Records
---
Amino acid sequence: MKEQLEAIKLEAVEKVNQVNDSKELQEVKVAYLGKKGSLTGVLRGMGKLSKEERPVIGEIANQVRETITSAIEEKSKVLEEKALEEKLQAEAIDVTLPGRPVKAGGPHLLTSIVEEIEDLFIGMGFEVREGPEVETDYFNFEALNLPKDHPARDMQDTFYITNELLMRTHTSPVQARTMQSYGGSKPFKMICPGKVYRRDTDDATHSHQFTQIEGLYVDKDVKMSDLKGVLDVFAKKMFGQDREIRLRPSFFPFTEPSVEMDISCKSCDGQGCSVCKGTGWIEILGAGMVHPNVLSMAGYDPNVYSGFAFGMGPERIAMLKYGVNDIRQFYLNDVRFLKQFHNA
């Protein structure tokens, strides 16, 4: 039995030295030290030994077990260090390689247009005001000379939430709220940019959600000539100093008289082309003198105060200024489209 134990020790240590990974090492450990291993099998025969031989063989068996266990532990450390080294080599980072460039974003084209228009009117003394997108029927219609059942309401297909709550169809409610907040005694200039909503079918020139910027100037002795001067400055700043404007009679319930403003076509310098449909002019916004009823409902005496108002769509301005032919491009979030205007 002594010779058997010695042979098992030599064989086990040799096998341990030959293994190349942790899985093989575990298999060797089970083969020699497990419940069905070689060493355990030999020790089961100790019952046949004499009383004098048992302690001797038992001591030798313990030494063999310790030798094999020690060899396995040492080999395990070597394999762990080897695995760690291989992992470090595989995950090594070459710090001399150039870094990956970070793509810089930029403002959305509509954001840039709105900010450009805001800066322009702030420079002319206007303040920027905002209001709720979920609006009351009163401020969206009634306070703007559009009582219930007025036929002009059909011009603006509306998303109603209740009979008295709706998604605002224009930013004019902000104007009505501002006039009421001043109590009919304070002159002011303001613009109100924001999103508006209408029940419209989306196509190349229409959207159920779009942006508006409306302006309002109320003071004593405000004239149509003041409106034309402000709009002329706006047109030249946005589209070039050689742009001309013209005002055509129109109708809006909250202004009287009302006008549509056209600018001379930039593509043909007013000579007529496909862009302007041969007229030489392109419609850009609506405007007019504030209706006396609107002033009265806000607390302003129309015999003392007068004012002008205008409204424009930044999407339309962007389409004309940059040659965009489909309003839906502004809302598709296509980076290929948007990145063209990062430096616009």
---
Amino acid sequence: MRNNIIFVVLCLLVVFSCDSNRVYDVYKSLPNEWHKDSVVSFKINPPDTINPYNLFVNLRNNNDYQFSNLYLIVEMNFPHGRTIKDTLQYKMAEPNGELLGTGFTDVKENKLWYKEGVVFNEAGQYTIKIQQAMRENGKVDGMDNLQGITDVGFRIEKPLE
């Protein structure tokens, strides 16, 4: 009986740990701070030029992150020279200061929407560039170093069916 329970639990873990929608999922580590001029880049060769995909910026942050939101500049460079640049804002903490994201330790993982239903209609390599764009209230210049961001990632998923 006990062996049957262990077998069922292991089977459930295998089934639920599979991530069949993932097409691309890469992280790059930071030294617990992110300089305003530091650009994190990802070179991507999409699987096709026909199907739509959902794009995400993934972040890991720890308790050193002191803000309730996050501003990012995300740039997508197409194979034939076209560029799309977006300034994005994400909520990172509750009003009481509790960090959002998943994780049982002081490191939280955040899966942040970037674009939905993107068709990579140009064959070739795309480059995604991500840069922090935080500044303190009342100041014009950006923060030199943003504390608490430990990893920056980029993810491409097939849309849910």
